Amino acid sequence: MLLRCASGFGSIALMALLDDRTFGGIAPQTSAFAGPMAPRLPHYAPRARNVIFLYMDGGPSQVDTFDPKPLLTKEHGQPFKMKMEPTQFNNNGNTLGSPWAFRNYGQSGIPVSELFPQVAACVDELCVVRSMTSNFSEHTSANYFLHSGLGLSGRPSMGAWVCYGLGSENQDLPGFVVLNGGLVPPGGLENFGSGLLPASFQGSIFRAGAHSLANIHPAEPRPALQQNKLALMRKLDQDVLERAGPADQIESAIANYELAFRMQTAVPELMEVKGESEATRKLYGLDAPYEHTRTFASQCLVARRLVERGVRFVELTCPAINGADRWDQHGNLKSGHENNSRAVDQPIAGLLQDLKGRGLLEHTLVIWAGEFGRTPFAQGADGRDHNPFGFSVWLAGGGVKGGTIYGATDEYGYKVVDKKVEMYDLHATMLHLLGLDHKKLTVRFSGRDMRLTDVHGEIIKDLLA
Predict the structure, then answer these.
(1) 20 to 30 Å CA-CA from 404: which of 76, 210, 220, 418?
(2) Chain centroid to CA 454: how far?
(3) Are strands 373-374 and 313-316 parallel, antiparallel or unpaired?
(4) How far apart are CA 315 and CA 163, in angstroms?
(5) Rounded to whole angstroms, how far apart are CA atoms 352 and 119?
(6) Residues 250-301: pLDDT tens digits?
(7) How many CB atoms lie within 10 A of CB 290?
(8) Facing residues of 386 across strands?
(9) pLDDT tens-digit readout, 209-264
(10) For residues 298 and 304, is the Cβ–Cβ distance under 8 A?
């Protein structure tokens, strides 16, 4: 009897261990232990396990950052010689040369403007895509398109799709986290929504700093009181499910309550960065004199801590810089872009170096992108209007071929002339690096199979290492 009991209890314990993420188990979706964020197997062997999306809200200028155009400098102040497409505003001016010089960096010799001196030191890790395009030239629609593959609200964000396909490696934190630097982009929180997917996959927004979430500390004086409340809510929700049948809103609410309870322990520990070494804090710029550098440094450091803990998709928004209006410089281009780059340059470089030093960059895909670029001709005298016809983004880590340039714009940096990349292609390539086939990652809705790339998208194989 003792032998059988011991073996039986041992078998039960073994089953639990094998299904626990700590021991590398992947719980199938049909498992009784599987929640909405349970880790799921990819379609094929992945190169990346996590994504950090550095969202440059407003649209940085490609010809002032990663796509130098000497002809703009040569013809500065002269009438623009290409046909101008319709722009957001009508006060188009003459050709506008870049106020910043470019230099070649690294073994790859990729040119980077003096706006990003510290990111430039990491250029051999970057794959710079100079031939990115968008279907929209207005912020709200372009933001929805960048985030969800559709220029309208209501579709799942790419972070939600990634969690839907892969789940998360950490059941004590959300699988999709948005680190808010102070600016919610045009289009609002729908940019981070779950759309037609279950609500559990939507982005959870954390503020930078110690007070990251409201109500993260229990209000009850004793843990037992909170446990009793949770048990009552669980019973009431379960009673409704038994009467009404499966309902996403109720099931997601139950899962979110349970996650929120676990986050009361996990989040304070996550956001407590004082335990990081002085060298690490200095690397990111937590001691920088510019307050917005410190804000973005905190976001980047927490992003590393999130992927270190197995969070699947992390997005960073820009700090709220007075007088800069995001990267959206319709006027005061020089001061606006300099203030924005000053805020993000050191923290991004620190993030790349830290990820690489800890062996995390190999499995973490870092994406730097805005919703579109800027015109090579002036708006008014000292600004640039929106340009969706050709702009630059870059990727690093996670199976990407570093130290390379992909695609090209014309001699003015206005339109793509080689290897055009659509937003669907960027999404398809991101999913591919995560081990997901973008044509198979679907959900049935309104009589058709919906996907992030809709009926479009090609994997850009030349970006892969």
Answers:
(1) 76
(2) 20
(3) unpaired
(4) 13
(5) 9
(6) 777 777 778 887 888 788 878 888 889 999 999 999 999 999 999 999 999 9
(7) 16
(8) 374
(9) 667 776 677 778 888 887 888 888 888 888 888 888 877 777 777 777 788 878 88
(10) no
Q: Contact 365/72 with Cβ under 8 angstroms?
A: no
Q: What φ, ψ does residue 104 adopt, rounded to 5°? A: -85, 140
Span 331-357, pLDDT tens digits? 999 999 999 999 999 999 999 999 999
Q: Pick from 118, 116, 117, 147: which is nearest to 134 by CA? A: 147
Q: Which residues fall within 8 angstroms of residue 212, CB to CB, at 6 or more apart? A: 206, 267, 271
> What secondary structure does DSSP assign to 349-367, as a single string?
HHHHHHHHHTT-GGGEEEE
The string of DSSP letters for 1-59 reads -HHHHHHHHHHHHHHHHHTSGGGT----TTSTT--TT-----SS--S-SEEEEEE-TT-
Q: With pLDDT > 70 as the criterion, what percentage of the chain qualifies?
A: 91
| 3-class DSSP assignment, residue 105 | strand
Rounded CA gap, 47 and 51, in Å?
11
Whole-number Å distance between alpha carbons of 204 and 176: 6
Residue 7 has pLDDT above 70, yes or no: no
